[in-house]
Amino acid sequence: MHELLHALGLRHEHSRPDRDLHIAVNWNNIKPGSRHHFQVDNGYTFLDIPYDFDSVMHYGRNAFAKNSSVGVLTALTSPTRPLGGAVLTELDRRRLQVLYGCYNAMH
After folding, report:
1. How far apart are CA 80 and CA 106, in angstroms?
2. What keywords were assigned to this record (predicted)?
3. Is residue 46 predicted with pLDDT exceeding 90?
4. Which among 13, 33, 40, 72 is placed 20 to 30 Å from 19, CA to CA?
5. Is residue 5 part of a domain?
C-alpha cells in the first residue's frame, strides 16, 4: 500500500515541513546511511489536511533504528503512541481525493 501511494504521488508524512511540531526524530539512533529517510521534504504539499500519525505514508517508531527498544520517531503528544499503519486512513483517502480533484464529488 505504501509504495502504491508513492506511485500515486503521496510523500512520507514524517517528512512534512511541520513534522517537528508533531514528532521528534532521534537522529542518534538512525542506522548509518539512513538519515536521508528522515529529512524534511520542502516540496511537500499539505493539501490543507492535518498531520496523520496513523498514515500508511508515516514510518513506524523503529524504522531504520540502530536500537529498536529506543526507536527513532516519537510522537510529541504521547511518547508511546504507535506511528504509521498498514491500512489506508481517512486522511490518506482525503489526500488522494484532493490531489486528484475528486474530494467534493465524493461527499
Report:
1. 35
2. Hydrolase, Metal-binding, Metalloprotease, Protease, Zinc
3. no
4. 33
5. yes
Other CB atoms within 10 Å distance of the CB of residue 47: 14
Q: Is 55 exposed, middle or buried (0-12, 13-18, 19+ CB in 10 A)?
A: buried
* H helix or E strand, kind and range, residue 91: helix 90-99
Active site residues: 3
Supply 94's cell numbers: 482525503
Contact 37, 63 (CB under 8 A): yes
How many independent structural domains does the chain possess? 1
Residue 105 in any domain: the answer is no
- Extract the C-alpha cell encoding 76: 510529541
Query: What pLDDT shows up at residue 4?
Result: 96
Instruction: State the cell numbers at 84.
Output: 504509521
Hey, which residues does 65 pair with through a beta bridge? 30
Q: Helix, strand or coil for residue 28? A: helix
